[in-house]
Amino acid sequence: MSIVISVFIIIAAAAYVAAPFVRGDAAPEPARSSAGKPDRQRLERQKSDAYAAIKEAEFDYRMGKLSDSGFDAMREKYAAQALDVIATLESASVPPSRALAEARRTVRIKYCPMCGHTVPPRANFCPACGRSLNEAVA
Fold first, then answer.
1. How far apart are CA 22 and CA 2, in angstroms?
2. What pLDDT, in 10s, does the model give residues 30-65?
C-alpha cells in the first residue's frame, strides 16, 4: 500500500514540474484592469525588465561574452519590447485623479511666516514686511 502511495506522489510531482514545459505558454497578453485598460504596474515592470535586459546585454558585450551580432540581436529584441510597452502606456494614460489634481494646486498662505501679518489671496509678497511668500511655501 505504501508503494502505491509513493508512486502516486512521484507521478504527481513529476507532472507538476513538467507542466510548464508541456503547456507551451504563448506571449502573454497585457493584463487588463476591470475597466478594460492595461494594468499600469505590470507594464511599468515589463518596461523596467526590458531596460535591465538591455543593460545586462551591454555588460556581457563589454566583458566579451557576446559577439557583435549577438549583442545587436539582443538589443534590438529588448528595445522593441520596451517600445511596445511604452506605446501601450502612453495610449492608456489615465487622467490624474482628483486627489492628484488637488495636490498640484499651489499652496496659499494666510499669514506671513516672518511677521504674522494677514496676507491677501494671490499675493506674492507680504504687504507688511515685503518677504517673498513663494520662498515660504517651498
1. 29
2. 555 555 555 888 888 999 999 999 999 999 999 999
